């Protein structure tokens, strides 16, 4: 799944090796003192020695559970809103074909998740920005007190609750076309990959059926061979090949599950991509609101200064009803407004700057992501094609063997 | 000895091996028996039965006969006959069924098939015939053969009744499947050393107007039918000879296993078709995805096209299985049924004989010689046994060849399917690989 990028310069992966080497089932007590079973994953890290020393440095290892990975990712997501943060492997098995267990404790599922978690760590560690994060580093190296350290960063306070709550409700007047397109793309990518995964699961189901029914030939050929003389041996051994054919599908589909996991990663990446777009949208919204506020204040100020009411307003009504304010009062009001306008202008300036910065860094990361995606998916497709090729070759082999048995009958 | 051999040929060519008393008379009148190419086959085939005829004629006093000589020559000739079957060069009767045509009349709609015969046999006036026959005519032929050759295994016809509404009787596939089965039916008869000389078969192949013959034959053959009547029920067979019991058991298991294979094959086809439905949806999803992408567009389109090619290959595979594999299986299931019927008839003949023997034994115990009708009955049993054994052996041989061919064909079709998919997947690898460098 993972391939280190050619252009990474100072990323963490150059300095340490990271692997998730083991998974272990554990039981413990949760927050409300209830018995629970969970899986812990062993993270191993080892400093990469400079070549001259030639000695292996010791391996550091620590255990983390899935929820801690989740916490890490949430932290990264909030702290780096302009980054397409690598996704975690699925919490529960989705898009499975019927023979595949959906049980979280299923060894195959745990194993696939182990690979997925390792892949996640490697992706973060090779990311030019994310890899420099202190919290990430201590996630890898500091077993105790890590959770407290994360919470101390107060990242949860920074989390913009609007991001989750209202995604489609802001109406941005001047959306950035690039981000709109990207958001549209991530929506479509998500829907097409989930469709693909759904159909693939059904295809796997059917293929499994086709192979397994051939297994019945194995039995009946063997039974039939018992009553035949000259044909007996040929039938018997052909039956054996049918058994081989039937059981070969287990490995084939297990391998294919790896391909499904690669697709799933990009299904979840689509969500990460959308998070960046949404964040941008939100910033744009804030910017526009601030600009709007400033404009209205400027207008008010002008009205007060000139004494004219251009538009019919409540204020105009009250001044007509209760008589004019004293010049002092007006002066004071204008002063307050002018201060607010100044503040607003500063704010707008900084928001503008912030937005421009965001766009710059986010777009750079999106470009990086696109390259990574094209490379990864091409590789995934190649390995998928190679899998299909080896399946075809296996099929040819088995049927050629069976044919030889038949020809001796 | 020579006289006896000629006598045997006469018996067989007359089409009724059991009419022993006509032997002398026929030898004289039919002295110029043609020694056609079927001679060896027929000779070998009937040597078993001739032996008993021979015993009946020349040894009326029941002196024991050295059985080794006819038996050994029989097996030798059987081997000759087998060789003939294998290379097919000595065949002198070739029959094909082709060119189905639909006939729509006011009363009914039916299909006729062209039956073409090419032969060098003297029994045929012309070297070539071409007639049109419908299913009913084949059915008539089979009934006639069963009637006139009760001791022989008659190949099966494809099932007459098809579920209406489920199968379209006039669809191209159905007609083609049936044509193949009818072709097989006639070829099996044409290759049979005894059945191929049957008079009805000859008429079926040559007569311009078969219906006229059918009517005329009715009266003529009713007499013949009498010789075929057996005691049904009443007498229970004391003991079936071991080899026939084994044959029966074999056929039971054989039919059972073929039935299972038939069901498995149908399940596989069903699973394949369901797999095909999913694959047909799977491919286009890649295409849709390709539409979203720039750099990945072409590779994804490639995968989509590749899955499309696999679909076509799969379709061909299940079509082949439906059209070529299943009908042959079914023919053999029916074949084993025919075989079981012949076995049953044999048991009846033996039962008849045993009943007569018992009756005689009860009447007089001191009589040295059993009455001739009981002896005739015994001969009939022996002839039947010999014919049946020879047919079984023949059947076993052709079964072995047919199944070898059938199963190898199945393997071949699967190999071809995988080869097509392999080519498709291999062809997209360069499409996936070349792109990063061009960027």
Describe the overall structure:
The complex is a heterodimer of chains A (409) and B (439). Chain A is mainly α and 409 residues long. Chain A folds into two domains: 1-159, PX Domain, CATH 3.30.1520; 162-308 and 327-409, Arfaptin homology (AH) domain/BAR domain (Substrate Binding Domain Of Dnak, Chain:A, Domain 2). Chain A has helices at residues 66-79, 107-125, 134-141, 146-152, 155-158, 161-165, 177-225, 232-306, 314-322, 327-407, and strands at residues 16-29, 35-47, 59-65. In chain A, strands 1-2-3 form a three-stranded antiparallel sheet. Chain A is elongated, with a radius of gyration of 31 Å. Mean pLDDT of chain A is 85; it is low at 4-8. Chain B has 439 residues and is mainly alpha-helical. Chain B has a three-stranded antiparallel sheet. The longest helix of chain B has 67 residues, at 297-363. Chains A and B meet through helix 7 and helix 10 of A and helix 9, helix 10 and helix 11 of B. Chain A: This is Sorting nexin-4 isoform X1. Chain A: One of its GO terms (cellular component) is early endosome membrane.
Keywords:
heterodimer, A: 409 residues, PX Domain, Substrate Binding Domain Of Dnak, Chain:A, Domain 2, 2 domains, 10 helices, B: 439 residues, mainly alpha, three-stranded antiparallel sheet, 12 helices
Number of strands of chain B: 3
Specify the number of helices of chain B.
Answer: 12
Biggest contact: A-B, 50 and 52 residues
Helix content of chain A: 55-70%
Largest sheet: spatial strand order of chain A:
1-2-3
Number of domains of chain B: 3
* Overall strand count of chain A: 3
Terminal CA distance of chain B reads 94 Å
GO molecular function, one term (chain B): phosphatidylinositol binding
Keywords (chain B): Protein transport, Signal, Transport
Organism (chain B): Alligator sinensis
InterPro entries (chain B): AH/BAR_dom_sf, BAR_dom, PX_dom, PX_dom_sf, SNX30_BAR
């Amino acid at each position: 799944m993972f391939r280190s990028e050619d252009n990474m310069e100072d990323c963490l992966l150059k300095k340490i090796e990271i692997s998730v080497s083991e998974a272990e089932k554990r039981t413990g007590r949760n927050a409300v003192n209830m018995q629970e079973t969970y899986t812990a994953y062993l993270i191993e890290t080892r400093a990469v020695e400079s070549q001259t020393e030639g000695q292996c440095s010791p391996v550091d290892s620590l255990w983390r559970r899935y929820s801690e990975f989740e916490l890490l990712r949430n932290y990264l997501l909030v702290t780096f809103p302009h980054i397409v943060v690598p996704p975690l492997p699925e919490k529960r098995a989705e898009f499975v074909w019927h023979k595949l267990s959906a049980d979280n404790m299923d060894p195959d599922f745990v194993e696939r998740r182990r690979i997925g978690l390792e892949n996640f760590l490697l992706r973060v560690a090779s990311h030019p920005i994310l890899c420099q994060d202190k919290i990430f580093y201590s996630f890898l190296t500091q077993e105790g007190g890590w959770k407290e350290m994360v919470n101390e960063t107060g990242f949860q306070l920074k989390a913009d609750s609007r991001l989750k709550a209202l995604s489609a409700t802001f109406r941005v007047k001047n959306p950035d076309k690039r981000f709109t397109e990207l958001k549209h793309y991530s929506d479509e990518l998500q829907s097409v990959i989930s469709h693909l995964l759904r159909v693939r699961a059904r295809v796997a189901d059917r293929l499994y059926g086709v192979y397994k029914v051939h297994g019945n030939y194995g039995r009946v050929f063997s039974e039939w061979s018992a009553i035949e003389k000259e044909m007996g041996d040929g039938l018997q051994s052909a039956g054996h090949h049918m058994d081989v054919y039937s059981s070969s599908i287990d490995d084939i589909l297990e391998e294919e599950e790896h391909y499904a996991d690669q697709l799933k990663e990009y299904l979840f990446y689509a969500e990460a991509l959308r998070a960046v777009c949404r964040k941008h949208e939100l910033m744009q919204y804030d910017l526009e609101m601030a600009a709007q506020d400033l404009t209205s204040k400027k207008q008010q100020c002008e009205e007060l200064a000139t004494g004219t009411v251009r538009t019919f307003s409540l204020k105009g009504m009250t001044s007509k009803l209760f008589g004019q304010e004293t010049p002092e009062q007006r002066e004071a009001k204008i002063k307050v407004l002018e201060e607010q306008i100044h503040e607003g202008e500063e704010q707008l300036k900084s928001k503008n700057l912030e937005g421009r910065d965001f766009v710059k860094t986010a777009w750079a990361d999106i470009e990086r992501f696109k390259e990574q995606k094209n490379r990864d998916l091409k590789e995934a497709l190649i390995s998928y094609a190679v899998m299909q090729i080896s399946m075809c070759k296996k099929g040819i082999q088995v049927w050629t063997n069976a044919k030889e048995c038949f020809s001796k009958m | 000895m020579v006289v006896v051999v000629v006598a045997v040929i006469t018996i067989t060519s007359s089409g009724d091996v059991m009419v022993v008393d006509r032997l002398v008379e026929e030898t004289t009148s039919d002295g110029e028996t043609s020694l056609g190419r079927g001679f060896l086959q027929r000779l070998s085939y009937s040597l078993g039965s001739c032996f008993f005829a021979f015993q009946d004629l020349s040894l009326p006093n029941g002196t024991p006969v050295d059985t080794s000589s006819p038996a050994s020559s029989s097996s030798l000739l059987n081997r000759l006959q087998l060789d003939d079957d294998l290379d097919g060069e000595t065949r002198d009767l070739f029959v094909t069924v082709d060119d189905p045509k639909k006939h729509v009349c006011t009363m009914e709609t039916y299909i006729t098939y062209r039956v073409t015969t090419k032969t060098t046999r003297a029994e045929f006036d012309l070297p070539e015939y071409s007639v049109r026959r419908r299913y009913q005519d084949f059915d008539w032929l089979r009934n006639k053969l069963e009637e006139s050759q009760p001791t022989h295994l008659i190949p099966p016809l494809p099932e007459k009744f098809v579920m209406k509404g489920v199968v379209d009787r006039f669809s191209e596939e159905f007609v083609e499947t049936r044509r193949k089965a009818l072709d097989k039916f006639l070829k099996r008869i044409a290759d049979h050393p005894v059945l191929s000389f049957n008079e009805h078969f000859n008429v079926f192949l040559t007569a311009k107007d078969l219906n006229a013959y059918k009517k005329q034959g009715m009266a003529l053959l009713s007499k013949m039918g009498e010789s075929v009547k057996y005691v049904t029920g009443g007498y229970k067979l004391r003991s079936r000879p071991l080899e026939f019991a084994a044959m029966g058991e074999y056929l039971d298991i054989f039919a059972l296993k073929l039935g299972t294979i038939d069901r498995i094959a149908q399940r596989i086809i069903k699973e394949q078709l369901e797999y095909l439905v999913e694959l047909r949806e799977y491919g286009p999803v890649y295409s849709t995805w390709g539409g979203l992408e720039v750099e990945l567009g072409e590779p994804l389109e490639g995968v989509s096209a590749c899955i499309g090619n696999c679909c076509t290959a799969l379709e061909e595979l299940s079509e082949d299985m439906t059209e070529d594999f299943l009908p042959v299986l079914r023919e053999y299931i029916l074949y084993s049924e025919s075989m079981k019927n012949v076995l049953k008839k044999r048991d009846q003949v033996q039962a008849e004989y045993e009943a007569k023997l018992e009756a005689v034994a009860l009447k007089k115990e001191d009589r040295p010689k059993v009455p001739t009708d009981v002896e005739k009955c015994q001969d009939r049993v022996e002839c039947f046994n010999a014919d049946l054994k020879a047919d079984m052996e023949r059947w076993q041989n052709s079964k072995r060849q047919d199944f070898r061919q059938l199963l190898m064909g199945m393997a071949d079709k699967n190999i071809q399917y995988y080869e097509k998919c392999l080519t498709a997947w291999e062809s997209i690898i360069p499409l996936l690989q070349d792109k990063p460098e061009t960027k």
